[in-house]
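Protocol step 4 of 6: structure prediction from sequence.
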Amino acid sequence: MQMFLQILSILIPVLFAITLHEVGHGWAAKQFGDRTAEIQGRLTLNPIAHMDPIGTVLLPGLLLYLGGLVFGWAKPVPINPMNLGNPKRDMFFVAIAGPAANLLMTCFWSIFFTVSVYLFGEQHYLHPYIILMAQTGVFINLVLMVFNLLPIPPLDGGRVLRSVVNEKIGRTIDLIEPYGFFIVVGLLFLGALQPIFKIVQSIATIFI
């Protein structure tokens, strides 16, 4: 029972972190004229609609089993830039909406932590699991926000960068995008992103 509650305390904030991140993109796209995500049923808080077999199930489950940092991703929401009023400008707001959703959730879990400490005394049997859920919610949302803001396509930071540079630089970014995933994996493997995670941990202590 304790193991089940511990897993649940971690998976709930992780699932909602990646789900609301994608919903944020789809919602922003809708505001600027692209209803593709809405039509395909992706503007929903149901995590099943956003699940990626590897990024949402296999990888987080494996990391949880190994006792490491639980991390993952959801299926990207479909965005059709041609439906946007001003594709270059509007994509900036569509891209930034995902990290913004994670920032809002960081604040939510921070408030949740404070309220939980007040409502649940340390002697309550749910106290450690509620605190674990709040701490996981703060940390995972900060990680997703900062990680996705890296200026590497196809991460959100790469999309933001593409929307603010001139077309010549933008075409260079487009050429890099097919290899962006491998660049990110390489940076993770080499430990180049470790300082970022340490900064995130420091920021998380401010929220909790």
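Step 5 (inspection) to follow. DSSP finds nine helices and no strands in the chain.
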